[in-house]
């Protein structure tokens, strides 16, 4: 996209009692179950398609101005970086916006991520995230590396799965909470149970998302 003026689309939107932040549509994966394939939005947003990445300034302004029928960031239980793309693809805006949330509202900050952010940015980004993020919620999707890649179809290929585990390990070392998530119905109960092992090893929780189509 070459549009560089005007607001690129919906940046902040409400899901439940959380304020969600949509910073990019870029993602190194092409998950078989990605919501982007079947719908335009999540929660109370109209559309999460952006004409380009959101700048740091736009993200801060959107957080300050957010008002969904009286619900503002001040009312949110947490601020979650999660949109139609991988938030760490737009790391500078993520860090600026999360720091602003901490400074202005002292809210809990979570990043929903595919765990490939250090590969995307070519360096270990967990120390930077730890300055303003409380929790990383990482899509594990499957406990087996080969099946993982079949499901997420990462452009990083076989590098993605070990990088995800390393990202979680480093996130924990840098003091962030970590949750590994799987999607109900995309894996068997036996495979779900096998996720307990990496979770225990890495000090992460396991959460099973309901499938949304
Ligand atoms: S990581 Fe998320 S945004 Fe990227 S393709 Fe998978 S489900 Fe979609």
UniProtKB/TrEMBL annotation:
Keyword Lipoprotein attributed: no
PROSITE patterns with a match to the protein in the record: RADICAL_SAM
Keyword presence, S-adenosyl-L-methionine: yes
Source species, domain of life: Bacteria
Domain Radical SAM core: residue ranges: 13-213
Pfam families: Radical_SAM (PF04055)
Keywords noted in UniProt: Iron, Iron-sulfur, Metal-binding, S-adenosyl-L-methionine
The name this protein goes by in its record: TatD family nuclease-associated radical SAM protein
Organism: Kribbibacterium absianum
């Amino acid at each position: 996209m070459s549009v560089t003026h005007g607001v690129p689309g919906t940046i902040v939107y409400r899901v439940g009692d959380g304020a969600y932040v949509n910073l990019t549509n870029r993602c190194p994966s092409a998950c078989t179950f990605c919501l982007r394939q079947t719908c335009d939005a999540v929660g109370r947003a109209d559309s999460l398609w952006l004409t380009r990445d959101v700048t740091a300034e736009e993200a801060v302004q959107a957080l300050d101005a957010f008002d969904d029928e009286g619900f503002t960031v001040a009312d949110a239980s947490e601020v979650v970086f999660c949109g139609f793309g991988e938030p760490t693809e737009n790391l500078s805006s993520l860090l600026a916006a999360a720091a602003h949330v901490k400074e202005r509202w002292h809210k809990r900050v979570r990043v929903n991520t595919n765990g490939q952010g250090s590969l995307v940015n070519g360096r270990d980004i967990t120390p930077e995230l730890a300055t303003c993020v409380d929790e990383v919620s990482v899509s594990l999707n499957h406990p087996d590396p080969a099946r993982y890649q079949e499901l997420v179809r990462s452009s990083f290929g076989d590098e993605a799965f070990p990088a995800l585990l390393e990202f979680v390990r480093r996130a924990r070392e840098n003091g962030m909470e970590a949750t590994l998530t799987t999607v109900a119905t995309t894996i068997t109960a036996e495979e779900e149970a096998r996720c307990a092992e990496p979770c225990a090893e890495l000090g992460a929780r396991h959460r099973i998302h309901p499938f949304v189509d």
